[in-house]
């Protein structure tokens, strides 16, 4: 409190709520298109577009993604975060397709940069779309996810993404030490200007359910990700995660999921002051969709409220599958 001693009837807070105009005048947080990063699930021609739990979101071919990127630039969106749908035949124990410049991510990046050079594109760094066991890292013989070997693979993947044109790489795997290693690998390969958006504070969450369907990992995934993603009960540990990543050279920090973890958005932003991104994950989108389809509320109103609350909590940007739609609502 800033030395404020108001009391009723001198102070009536409703005075500043009485019209649209006055509410707008005193609004503390706003969402603008440039705050929004469009989440995009890529697919090969011939693979299915529909994602059943996420009506309104479709997997996009490379051509469709390039068209979307062009529209995103015109609409003033902040960027696009790309993820590939990968069928079982493109998966193996080593996640080899992650290092292939001709994979879906690479082809999409090149097509986007050709059609919409100004689009900011963010590439996820993690092996889960490419491994036959669906984990973000390499698996040892006893089934544990190997940290240091995985970090080497992630470095290769990050350099591959940079080579195909990504502006930002976003390690989402939660291995220890990967941000520093990726920074070094990028610099050695001449990509000093490629930024790292670290999924620094990422929880082992049920809210990723629809995403695993979307990228084709659901059937593949053996067990769960709790030996590397964080326990949802932990906040102090999240601050340590963020501190390590800042020290290792992260340019931006992410908190994920979003809505149920807004306390962490606030704390990470307050503590570090780095550009802080919140991810409105697949399950959050699915909840908004399902509830609105059940007649519980209006999708657009609930979506815009949630996005505004991310801003209020301190997020500088939000990854959402509804970015283009929200930007339309903001400008119409
Ligand atoms: N590295 C995987 C990854 N990258 C982004 C998401 C989730 C995105 C979403 O739910 O929208 C996940 C899922 C997971 O960790 O299992
Ligand atoms: Mg970490």
Automatic annotation (TrEMBL):
Pfam families assigned: ALAD (PF00490)
Record InterPro entries: ALAD (IPR001731), ALAD_AS (IPR030656), Aldolase_TIM (IPR013785)
Top-level taxon of the source organism: Bacteria
Xref: SUPFAM superfamilies: Aldolase (SSF51569)
Molecular functions (GO terms): porphobilinogen synthase activity
Matches recorded under PROSITE patterns: D_ALA_DEHYDRATASE
Catalytic activity, EC: 4.2.1.24
Catalytic activity: 2 5-aminolevulinate = porphobilinogen + 2 H2O + H(+)
Pathway involvement of the protein, from the record: Porphyrin-containing compound metabolism; protoporphyrin-IX biosynthesis; coproporphyrinogen-III from 5-aminolevulinate: step 1/4
Keywords: Heme biosynthesis, Lyase, Porphyrin biosynthesis
Family that this chain belongs to: Belongs to the ALAD family.
Subunit structure of this chain's protein: Homooctamer.
Protein name stated in the entry: Delta-aminolevulinic acid dehydratase
Organism: Parvularcula lutaonensis
